[in-house]
Structures are given as C-alpha cells and as structure tokens.
Amino acid sequence: MKNFKLFLVALVGIALSSCSMMDKDTNYQISDLQGLWVENNTEHYVRFTTEQSDENPYLLGREWHEDDPAGAVYEEYLLEQRQRDGFPGNGWFKYWLETSGKLTEIHFMDNGGAEIPKVYIVTKLNSTTLEYYNKDYKNEKYYFTRK
User: Fold this and answer.
1) Are 91 and 44 in contact (CB under 8 A)?
2) 47, 36 in Cβ contact below 8 A?
3) How many Å separate Cα 27 from the centre of its chain?
4) How far is CA 52 from CA 61, 63, 127, in A?
5) Which residues, including other chains, have CB under 8 Å from residue 123's CB and lie 6 or more apart?
6) Is 68 helix (H, G, I), strand (E, B) or coil?
7) Is the distance from CB of 98 to CB of 86 less than 8 angstroms?
8) How far is CA 106 from CA 68, 95, 109, 118, in A?
9) Hey, what CATH topology would domain 26-146 get?
10) Could you tell me the CA-to-CA distances from 129 to 12, 68, 108, 144, 146 in Å, in that order?
11) Hey, CA dihedral for 32, 38, 39, 40, is it positive or negative?
12) Boundaries of every domain in the chain
C-alpha cells in the first residue's frame, strides 16, 4: 500500500509538471521572426523573409558573415547568386517556426544540392530580441537583436 501511495504521488507530480509545461506554450508568430537580425553585435546577419520556398509551408531566409576572415559575404552577393544561378545556394535556407517555438532551418549547400536540417528551440522572441538554442546541443545558444 505504501508503494502504491508513492506511485500515486509521483504520478500526480508528473501530471502537474506536464500541465505547467503546456501552460508555457509560447505561441510565437512567424511574422514576429521575419526581418533582419544581427548576432551579439557581430557582423553575422540572418534575414527571415516572407518569400515562399518551393516546399510548403517553408519560407526562405539567408545568413551571411561580413567579418569572416576567409572572405566576407554580404547580402547583395547572396541575392546576385540566386539571380545568376536561379536557385538558392550557400547562405540560403528554408525555415518554419511552430507556435511552440520549434524553429526548423534547412540550409542549402552548393556541393551536390545537399540540404542540411537544423532544429532550434526559441526561448525569446519579441520586437527587439531573438534567442534560441540548438535542439540537440542545448549549450549551443544564439542571441540576436533586430537590426
């Protein structure tokens, strides 16, 4: 009987904690994500656009590093690249944000047309701040401000 009571208390505790997690549904809107963001006052930029990708419901985005010692990249280069080649390449990605805060990005690679998926969990999104972490590597965190 004592074990049953402990089991019941544990079950109630689990149920209550899962309910509180459900109450924390952030209900993020994709429109809040769209725009130009800069990471930690560096020259790493990400733009979430309203441009529809070929695959619903994904939209297109792009990222570039203007301070990369191997060769700075600018947004204009990515736009010229797409116009010239007719398709997105390195620096471009498809994205989708679920209301729960799960942000999926699928990055395009120039070599062989590979698409690399990345999944992040958004922890903060408002008119000035975007924060998220890598779903598989929780210590890999990113902090952006709206530009």
Assistant:
1) no
2) yes
3) 15
4) 10, 16, 22
5) 101, 131, 132, 133
6) coil
7) no
8) 22, 6, 10, 6
9) Lipocalin (2.40.128)
10) 36, 23, 26, 6, 6
11) negative
12) 26-146
- In three-state secondary structure terms, 19 is helix
Place of tokens 């904690």: 17
Residue that the structure tokens 């080649």 belong to: 85
Q: Per residue of the chain (147 residues), give pLDDT as tens.
A: 555 444 444 544 555 444 434 435 579 999 999 999 999 999 999 999 999 998 889 999 999 999 988 899 999 999 999 999 888 899 999 999 999 999 999 999 877 778 999 999 999 999 999 999 999 999 999 999 999
For residue 144, the Cα-to-chain-centroid distance in whole angstroms is 11
pTM of this structure? 0.80
- For residue 25, the one-letter residue type is D
